[in-house]
Amino acid sequence: MDTMVMHWLDWVVVALFFALILWIGVRSGKNINNSEDFFIGGGKIPWWLSGISHHVSGYSGVVFVGYAGIAYTQGMSIYFWWAVNIALATMLGAVTIIPRWPRLRRALGIQSPTEYLKMRYNQSAQLLVAVSGIVTKLLDVAAKWTSMGLLLYGFTGIPIWVGVVVSGIISLIYIAIGGILADLWTDFVQFMVQIAAGLALFIGVIMHLGDYGLNFFTVFQSLPEGHFAVFNAGRGQGSLSWTLLYFFVIFFSYSGGTWNLAARFISTSDGKEAKKAAMFSAGLYFIWPFILFFPMWCGPLLFPGMDQATAEATLYATLTNTFLPTGMVGLVLASMFANTMTMCNSDANTISAVLTRDILPIFKPEILQASGKQSLWYARITTILFTGCTVIVALFSDYFGGVTGLILTWFSALLGPTAIPLLLGLFPQFKHCDSKSAIASMIAGLGVFVATKLGVSLEADIALIAPLAVSFVVYAGIGLYNQYCAKQPVKPEIEKLMAALSDKNA
Question: Exposure of 387 by Cβ count < 10 A (0-12 exposed, 13-18 middle, 19+ buried)?
């Protein structure tokens, strides 16, 4: 299908929106005095802002590109394996892992999610988690830039690589200036815009269904065979077994295994605020994705004949240009731009914290004692460097299986081995798991992933969970050996930390 040509008024709306985003970045920068302000907002972020940011961080151009293609070709199952899974996983995280993040900041004064690992395990484990996580996010963010390029192509016909580069440059400006405060407030603004644009498209499609001999209720009866099913057949993506196993990947990811999400909770004042933020985000995941996906589900009835690749590139642009008036098209595009950029920027902000607080001090220890302005300089430079690298990877995304390949294969597989020692290390039940547990679990999990890439054939559901599962077994197994066989004592400082993390009042 041909790409669209946007009206000049739509371009004006996009330009005004980006001007607003840049203004937020500049304004936020005036409240940034040191790295603590830049990375975690001084630990004073309110629960509702943290919750909205956590929720918005699940949306990017990937939803409107890769997931649009899936919604078009597979139907409603994506709502259950993606949105409902995230909601339930976040609710579970809210009563288990998530409140421990602000407690960790209060106990140790951390600014990055991995900063505590040096004390919890040792420097080698900290470095391995940090490097592995940086590689993981490199791929994740690259997928989002790629999706942004595809969206811009679908709306305007501009080459994909131009969209990737332009998105990277614009976002880099405001995140390097305003840090996490700019990220959080742009999350809030773009969520408001997304609600307006998403509801407009939802209502616009419903109002025009009569032109196709349909209404809201008959749509679901008229969908292609299998599109109304909760789960897809077999054991592939969207199947019952795949969905259940993907829940565990999502649970670790949205509870802080994905570092930018951990940063949202670290930035809250205490465990109660973090829990409220997570519950708020989970509630939104039950409602908002249904509204967003509905027009995509209607796609096969409104614009039949697309394959998945075509739907990824043009479906959302086609829906928008067909059913929304001039001006609203630009608002939708601006919203999707902002969605993607804020996600990428939150990742860049968190990775910068890991680089500045965890990796660079190995080679230059005085960084941790740097003055406010100097620490801020390090924070901004590392943010710029990481973002630049993600843009480069995005330009070669086809080598990694495109958008959905990067997200569902590479990112999901690489997340587990880094998340296991990071998150389980927060629990007293795993206090006997030491640096050997952490390092061995990561090597084992990553080894399984490499094996699948070298030709070891596994069913799709097993391949999805295998790296995480193997990491967990190795991590817990060595911990049990330390506890019951080696009778290895737990260091006093770790016992003290476990007590602080379990304090319900902190």
Answer: buried
